């Protein structure tokens, strides 16, 4: 099978991106360097090509009812132009995928899913679809560009025809003109920073990419998949296949805020409800390395010589400048402050369980002023 | 890519500088570039007796874990502790920041190593 290219492939070559095979897509893991790109997104702005993501349109008079049954979050509660982060679960509570649902209106939605799960998701949705609902895979009709970082709004505003402050976090506007090109713009992202995701026609993607780079000047850098992963990790955002998976429920992973157990029936509800009402067997925890070494996904975790779980994601955090990780462990060992062993190349290296030690964006100055005023 | 002509190289992307009966080694410019930002180095264990091509150190970049293989057989005499606190030194100057020093027990092993020209040709093949 030949590798797929996004409409922005030429931009990656122009910026000397180091191209890798990412689940069948030729995408840049980095341009100048992962750590440099990471810091730019935390301090100024970064531009990402995420056109590989999948988009499905779900439309029809029963679309709302169907989505309410398909996903774990509350779709009926959504306003037009609002977005929710949610899960699709199997009947056993395991995760099919995590996704964003964009609501145009009661009968029209856009689902944004992980590229690596696209075909599986589509199959799952089609298996469960009800009459009065149409599902369309429209992934090829969209390029997707993410601009992320504290300066993202200032930069994008220079080419936008509307006041971007009118788009609040997890809301979108389907008709924003950027340098004369109509785009759907949402205030969303996967970095822990403020920023936008821009959905547009593939043939306009290179033009808009260049426009943003031009008006961003020294304040923006193209950023690759490597920085995308370190940024999402630091902000404790889950990655499918690591923090969440077909064998891990959203509750175990600590994302209960996107699971509305008090709404009508939905796929996986029985098991999740039972899990919530009894004690969770496993819990996603944070830890920091005390000894030398970097925890990596799937490394085993021991307590007093007994295996208690595994690392889901781990890295050297560029912003916090320490080696840290997320792990799924038996809940009985979830005591922040306790010492655990990470098995790194057959050696046991000490780590400490922590709480709320991951990166959190500081509130904006304006927001603070309002709160203090 | 820099490949100094006065050094010898391995197919595992280590460079070697021989001073009397001591062998200084590190990883090449090609290797550090391809690894990307290096964030952790597990340095060799001093006094360990090692054989040629045995794994003796680990280099971790943001995305990958890579082993460093002993370019010759001998005893580890020194390890560069600076790399524990500043692993990025390898990215900045791969040929100045040696990883370790090994005693040269068998000089004939040096004949198995590549010259700069041979190493450049070897890397060019890999990139094709």
Task: Describe, in plain words, how this protein is organized in 3D.
The complex is a heterodimer of chains A (373) and B (128). Chain A has nine helices and 20 strands. Chain A has 373 residues and is α+β, with helices and mostly antiparallel strands. In chain A, helix 2 crosses helix 7. The longest helix of chain A has 12 residues. The relative contact order of chain A is 0.14. The model of chain A has no long low-confidence stretch (mean pLDDT 96). Chain B has four helices and nine strands, in the order βββαβββββααβα. A six-stranded antiparallel β-sheet of chain B has the order 1-2-3-9-8-5. In chain B, a hairpin with a 4-residue loop joins strand 1 and strand 2. Classes of the chains: A alpha+beta (373), B alpha+beta (128). The interface between A and B is medium-sized, with 18 and 11 residues.
What distinguishing features does this structure have?
heterodimer, A: 373 residues, alpha+beta, 6-stranded mixed beta sheet, 6-stranded antiparallel barrel, 9 helices, 20 strands, globular, B: 128 residues, 6-stranded antiparallel beta sheet, 3-stranded antiparallel beta sheet, 4 helices
Instruction: Determine the most extensive contact between two protein chains.
Output: A-B, 18 and 11 residues
Strand elements of chain B, count: 9
Order of helices and strands of chain A: EHEEHEEHEEEHEEHEEEHEHHEEEEEEH
Give the overall pLDDT of chain B as a whole number.
Answer: 96
Q: Which regions of chain A contain 5 or more consecutive residues with pLDDT less than 50?
A: none
Q: How much of the polypeptide of chain B forms β-strand, as a percent range?
A: 25-35%
What's the overall average pLDDT of chain A, rounded? 96
Rg calculated over all Cα atoms of chain A? 21 Å
Report the strand count of chain A: 20
How far the N terminus sits from the C terminus of chain A, by CA atoms, comes to 60 Å
The strands making up the biggest β-sheet of chain A line up spatially as 11-12-13-10-4-14
Helix content of chain A: 10-25%
């Amino acid at each position: 099978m030949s590798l797929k290219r996004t409409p922005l492939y030429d931009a990656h070559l122009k910026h000397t991106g180091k191209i890798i095979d990412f689940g069948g897509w030729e995408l840049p893991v980095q341009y100048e360097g992962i750590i440099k790109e990471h810091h730019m997104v935390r301090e100024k702005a970064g531009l990402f090509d995420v056109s590989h993501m999948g988009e499905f349109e779900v439309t029809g008079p029963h679309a709302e009812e169907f989505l309410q049954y398909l996903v774990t979050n509350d779709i009926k509660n959504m306003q037009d132009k609002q977005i929710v982060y949610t899960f699709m679960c199997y009947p056993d509570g395991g995760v099919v995928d995590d996704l964003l649902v964009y609501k145009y209106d009661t009968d029209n939605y856009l689902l944004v899913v992980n590229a690596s799960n696209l075909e599986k998701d589509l199959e799952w949705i089609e298996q469960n679809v009800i009459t009065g609902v149409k599902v369309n895979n429209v992934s090829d009709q969209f390029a997707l560009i993410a601009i992320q970082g504290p300066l993202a709004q200032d930069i994008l505003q220079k080419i936008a025809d509307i006041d971007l402050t009118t788009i609040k976090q997890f809301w979108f506007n389907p008709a924003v003109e950027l340098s004369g090109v109509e785009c759907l713009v949402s205030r969303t992202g996967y970095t822990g920073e403020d920023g936008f995701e821009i959905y547009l026609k593939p043939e306009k993607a290179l033009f808009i990419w260049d426009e943003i780079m031009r008006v961003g000047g020294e304040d923006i850098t193209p950023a690759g998949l490597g920085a995308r992963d370190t940024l999402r990790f630091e902000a404790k955002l889950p990655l499918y296949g690591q923090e969440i998976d077909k064998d891990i429920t959203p509750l175990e992973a600590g994302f209960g805020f996107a699971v509305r157990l008090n709404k009508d029936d939905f796929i996986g509800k029985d098991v999740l409800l039972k899990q919530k009402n009894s004690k969770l067997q496993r819990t996603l925890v944070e830890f920091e390395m005390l000894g030398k070494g970097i925890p990596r996904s799937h490394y085993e975790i021991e307590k007093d010589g007994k295996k208690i779980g595994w690392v889901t994601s781990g890295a050297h955090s560029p912003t916090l400048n320490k080696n840290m990780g997320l792990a799924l462990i038996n809940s009985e060992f979830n005591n922040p402050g306790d010492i655990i062993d990470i098995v790194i190349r057959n050696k046991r290296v000490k780590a400490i369980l922590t709480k709320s030690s991951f990166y959190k964006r500081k509130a904006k100055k304006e927001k603070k002023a309002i709160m203090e005023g | 890519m820099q490949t100094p002509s006065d050094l010898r190289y391995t197919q595992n992307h280590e460079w070697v500088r021989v001073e009397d009966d001591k062998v200084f080694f590190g990883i090449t410019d090609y290797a550090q570039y391809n690894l990307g930002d290096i964030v952790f180095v597990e340095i060799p264990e001093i006094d360990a007796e090692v054989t040629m091509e045995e794994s003796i150190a680990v280099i971790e970049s943001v995305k990958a874990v890579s082993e460093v293989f002993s370019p010759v057989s001998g005893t580890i005499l020194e390890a560069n502790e600076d790399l524990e606190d500043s692993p990025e030194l390898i990215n900045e100057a791969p040929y100045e920041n040696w990883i370790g020093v090994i005693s040269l027990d068998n000089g004939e092993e040096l004949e198995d190593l590549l010259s700069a020209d041979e190493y450049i040709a070897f890397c060019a093949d890999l990139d094709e």
